[in-house]
Structures are given as C-alpha cells and as structure tokens.
Amino acid sequence: MKSSKKNFIYQAIYQVLVLLIPLVTTPYLTRTLGVxxxxxxxxxxxxxxxxxxxxxxxxxxxxxxxxxKVRDDKYNLSKSFFSIYIFQFGMGIIVSxxxxxxxxxxxxxxxxxxxxxxxxxxSMFDINWxxxxxxxxKALVLRNIVIRIFITILIFALINGSDDxxxxxxxxxxxxxxxxxxxxxFIKKKINIIKxxxxxxxxxxxxxxxxxxxxxxxxxxKIMDKIMLGLLTNTEQVGFFDSxxxxxxxxxxxxxxxxxxxxxxxxxxxxxxESKSSERLIGLSLELVLFLTTSLGFGLMAVSKTFVPWYYGxxxxxxxxxxxxxxxxxxxxxxxxxxxxxxxIPKGMDNFYIFSLILGAVANLTINSILIPKxxxxxxxxxxxxxxxVVCAIQLFFVRKYLPLKSYFNVSLKxxxxxxxxxxxxxxxNFTSISTVLNLGLQIFIGAxxxxxxxxxxxxxxxxxxxxxxxxxx
Length: 474
What we know:
The chain has helices at 2-32, 35-56, 59-70, 74-106, 110-115, 117-124, 128-134, 138-158, 165-182, 198-202, 205-232, 235-271, 275-312, 318-344, 350-375, 377-398, 405-427, 436-458, 461-473. By secondary structure, the protein is mostly helical. The longest helix is centred in the middle third of the chain and has 38 residues, at 275-312.
C-alpha cells in the first residue's frame, strides 16, 4: 500500500500538471485570444481527438492491464510491449492517411487542422500505458514539470492577441508531442529487443477493440458535445463550455490519478485472489474520491459568483450556471471511476462497463439533441450531468452482489451532507466592502472550516480518533 500512496502522489501531480497550464493561462487567454478563438481551437481539437482515439483504441486501459500482469517476467514484458506498440503504430499510419483524405472536405480552417496533425503524431508515440502498468509514475511527472512550465512561458511570451490562434495551436500541439517522445528515453532499460510474430500482434486486436467501445461512449459526452454545440450554435458557446471545464477538471484530475494508480494495483491483487484486500481498498478509495469531489465541487459552486468574474473576466457570467450543473456530476463520475478502475476492468467485467457507458452516451446524445437548440451551452451541461448519473447508477447496479455497497453508502453519506451544508451556507456569503481577492479568500476559508467541522461532527467516535491519530502521525 506504501507504493500505492507514493504512486498516487506522483500521478496526482501528473494529472494536475496536465491541467495546470489551462488553469493558469485561461484568465490570460480569455482576455487576449478571446472566447471565439478559444472556441475555434476547442472545436478543432474535438475533431482531432477522434482520430487520436482511433490510433490508441482501448490501449490506455488494455495496455495498462496487460503490462501489469507480466511486469515480473522481462521476456513476456518485452513481448507484450512490442506486440502492442507495433499494433498502435500501424493504426497510426492508417489513421494519418485517413485524416489527410478527409480534412479538406470537413474542416474550414485548413491551416489550423494541419497544425493539429501533430496531435496524431503524439498518439503514435504515446507509451504512457506501459509505465502505468509498471506502476512507475516518476518519469511521467518529471517530464511534465519541465515541459508544462516551458509551454506556460511560451504562451505568456508569444500569445498577445486574437490573431495568435495558430501560434497557440503550435505551442500546445508541440508540447504534447515532446511529452510523448521524452518517455522513449526510459524504455531501453525496461525491455529487451525480441522477435515478434504476426500472431502476437493479432492477439491484441479483439480485446483492444472491445475496450475501445467505452472510449467512444465516453467521448460522446466528453468531446462530441462540443462538436454538437459548435454545429447547432456557434464556437463562442463552445468557448464558454471549454473555459468552464478547465477549472472543473481540477478535482477530476485527482480522481483520474487515483484510478490510474489503482487499476494495475487491483489487477495484480485479483490475479493473486486477494479479495479482502481489494474490497478494503475500494472502500478507502471511495472515501477519498467523495472527500475530493464533495469538498472541491461544492466549494467551487459556493464561491462561483465571486470566482468567475474575477478569474475569467467580463462576459463569462453564464459559467456560474455551468458550475452549478457540471460540478455535482463530478461526484457521480468519481464513484463510477472507482467501480470501473478498481473492480470492473481488473476483474475483466468489460461487458458491464461497456453497457453502462453506451447507455450514458445514448442519454447524453438524446438530451443534447433536444436541449442544445433551446438552451445552448446550458443544454450540454444538463446532458453531461444526466450521462454521468446514468453511468454511475448502472455500474453500481452491476456490482451490488459483489461489493458491500450499503456499507460504502453509510460511510459516504457524511461527505455528501458536509459538502451540501457548506454550499448552502457559503453561497450567499459576500464581503463586498473588501477587495475581490480577500473576499474570495474569506469565502474559501469559511467554506473549508464549515466542511471540516461538519465532517468531524458526522463521523463516529472511532473515526474521529483515527482522524486525530492520522493527523498527528503525518
């Protein structure tokens, strides 16, 4: 468990750094590039994302799981790596040809989307799944620290107005490409060069395609909603939605970090048939996820009236409403992430996982089609909320006979109540006589205090003692 804690810290840093550039640069970009240019970039990226998906298929989960199973055997580790990667690279060549065959017919801004091809190259050389499977996150973190800081410097140095959209696209795309290439410097020490047969490569196709289905389903209510929003309204609406997501994804980054760390860990435990240990870890993970999503989610909702105008600038008032709709969906996303990465995928229950995501995607597409023409970006937010709720409910239904959900629910209730009470009490708390920064700081401090006090009061005496011991031990 010690290595899992360490890896969670590494992966948390990794995920936060991936989002740190948008978080730091968004206020600057909304004031220089403007919401229209940002929306155009987001719209183009949403399209290129589908080509990137075709290259990797289900590799992020499949490759992770396969490497975790054979990581103690260097020959099989090398065999798995080369057979999986050759398949990935071959898909990259096919997708590249397809991309340049259709780009001139589908996309208006040709120059922008030629630049975006760099993202496709990045996917061809992406071997994050290998290091995830080995549970080695240090290399991932180190490269991100250096490259992300460099990208941030370039943005502030080179982006000065709405005409710099292409510069921004080059900076972001090249940053991603360098990120992926950097990892290849570490691969030589991990594997041996061995001969791979055609059958070794072919064996990965079917399971990869199966795990590609949930990737497509997730993309429908993560990426397709932006495409639908751009087609049915305008890129400015896409800009509002994308800008709100930059902040909302911060608590979700920590949830993703936990999932990426625990997937190989749980795969290894299930392979050893250590069911008691795995069940205990799921319970602990759910508590951690609920603590993160309720404290940060309800907290951001509560201070949104002060935070949004200060952070984004004028003209972004609609983001306040988006926060109220999208942030609660993070709670359902977090619970589903634990169930998915720590039970369904490690146990090979891919069909249940896929089914839940397909129904979530159907719900999202249906609601988007109805509400976007009437409500615009708010309709997309409602569709996303409903999709996350559907996915979470179905996954919990599938595991109800295998996991002690009632026990998990009783423990988790205190986090919901504490977060909601904090939200209600802080929502209309506003110190108008002081500066915006001090006002926001006071709201955050009071909100955090309310949340922690409620959490303490709702905890049992045993949990309170454990909390104190843990605090003083740390």
